[in-house]
From TrEMBL:
GO terms for molecular function: 2 iron, 2 sulfur cluster binding; disulfide oxidoreductase activity; metal ion binding. This is Glutaredoxin. [2Fe-2S] cluster binds at C31. The gene is grxD. CDD domains: GRX_PICOT_like (cd03028). Gene3D superfamilies: Glutaredoxin (3.40.30.10). InterPro entries: Glutaredoxin, GRX_PICOT-like, Monothiol_GRX, Monothiol_GRX-rel, Thioredoxin-like_sf. Residues 18-82 form the Glutaredoxin domain. Keywords: 2Fe-2S, Iron, Iron-sulfur, Metal-binding, Redox-active center. NCBIfam families: Grx4 family monothiol glutaredoxin. PANTHER family: GLUTAREDOXIN FAMILY MEMBER, GLUTAREDOXIN-RELATED PROTEIN 5, MITOCHONDRIAL.
Length: 107
């Protein structure tokens, strides 16, 4: 990955408490998995930001290399890679996601 792209992704991840790299936007998700991530955060009633990977092919490929995770969406909380929508659902069902979000928003 080009150093400039790595820096760009790094800044996005560090500048947002909760960030979802997804297909589409939180108002118009473009795939079921991205929609699932949006619905989970909406159900928690917390602010979160999104990056539409369909609008930026460099980010779409670069985020996969950045995280070493092959699929979209990718969720970051407090600068830490959490995983995809499957991991997000699991954390939500176990009650751990709420705690991660509370800590991130309090910091």
């Amino acid at each position: 990955m080009m150093p400039e792209l790595n820096t760009r992704i790094d800044q996005l991840v560090q500048n947002h408490k909760i960030l979802v790299f997804m297909k589409g936007s939180k108002l118009m998700p473009q795939c079921g998995f991205s929609n699932t991530a949006v619905q989970v955060f909406n159900s928690l009633g917390v602010p979160f930001d999104t990056v539409d990977v369909l609008a930026d092919p460099e980010i779409r490929q670069g985020i996969k290399e950045y995280s070493n995770w092959p699929t979209i969406p990718q969720i970051y909380i407090n600068g830490e890679f959490i995983g995809g929508s499957d991991v997000l659902i699991e954390l939500y069902q176990q009650g751990e996601l709420q705690q991660l979000v509370e800590v991130a928003l309090a910091s």
